[in-house]
Amino acid sequence: MANRKPVVAANWKMNGDRQLVKQFIEIVHAAEVTNNVDVVLSPPATLLDYANTTRLGQKADIILSAQSISELSSGAYTGELSANMFKDVGCTWVYCGHSERRHIFGESSEVVAKKFIQAQKNGLTPVLCVGETEEERKKGKAFSRLTSQIEAVINLAGKDCFQNAIFAYEPVWAIGTGKAATPEIAQEAHKFIRGMIAAMRQESAESIRILYGGSVTPDNAVELFSQPDIDGGLIGGAALRPLDFVKICQAAT
Ligand code: PEP
Q1: What are the domain boundaries of the chain?
Q2: 132-143: b (≥16 Cβ within 10 Å) or e
Q3: In angstroms, rounded to a whole number, what is the distance separating the alpha carbons of residues 57 and 16?
């Protein structure tokens, strides 16, 4: 994993409540994993303020991430939440282009790129999520899909945009299905992504952290995270079970 500090991020999606936030923070702190791993919590937006004050009451070492932001700054956009609003409740990171945003809510790669820019412009670190569908993989189009998703961001944000960003490779067929990618398949995709960044800027490629997401559990985490280009994980289902999540963090060290 070179010199890159591993990241393990909890994506709760539309799940969780205050009680789970409190339990999660207590269990992560008791396990003392944050010295060696960047631990990220992204509960639903309504729980972020509570998560922020709860983590501050203990230690402020858990990073808070928004699950998505608006591509717009402020104004008459009912229901939208801006980058600055998330900063106000302690967020420093945001996911851009999670597959559920792309596939269920129809976010195009161009909209994802606008959100990526909005994040960086407002001082949030974007976690750019990319990944191919099962059909694209079967047709041998996995890498062309990754290329088009990444190029959409480069086209709008420029070649230097990955100096302060994180990647998450999340094959759509592995998210929430219990069918994680094999370590070999995941490593091949991570190496491809790092190679694309290296072609533009070598230093960014060496320092950028690329997370794997898709049915990570305490049972498969060690093997996945021991691949040379995998720098941790983006965890959905298992992140709702704090004891399992902590085991996944320990697998990243
Ligand atoms: C995710 O939500 O990004 C994810 C990877 O979910 P799961 O771990 O449940 O597959």
Answers
A1: 7-251
A2: bbeebbeeeebb
A3: 20
Question: What sign does the CA torsion over 146, 164, 107, 50 have?
Answer: positive
Shortest-distance Cα residue to atom 8 of ligand 1: 236
Fold annotation for 7-251: TIM Barrel (3.20.20)
Ligand 1 atom having least distance to the Cα of 235: 8
Tell me the mean pLDDT in the region 188-215. Answer: 95
| Pocket of ligand 1, beta carbon within 6 A | 11, 170, 175-176, 213-216, 234-238
Interval between CA 131 and ligand 1 midpoint (Å): 12
Quick: pLDDT tens for 24-75. 999 999 999 999 999 999 999 999 999 999 987 767 789 999 999 999 999 9
Measuring from atom 7 of ligand 1, which residue has the nearest CA? Answer: 236
Q: What is the pTM of this model?
A: 0.96
Q: Measured between alpha carbons, how far is 211 from 205 in angstroms, rounded to an integer? A: 13
Atom of ligand 1 nearest to the CA of 168: 3
Helix (H, G, I), strand (E, B) or coil at 193: helix
DSSP 87: H
Task: Give the residue numbers annotated as catalytic, written as ranges.
Answer: 98, 170
Atom 1, ligand 1: which residue's CA is nearest? 236
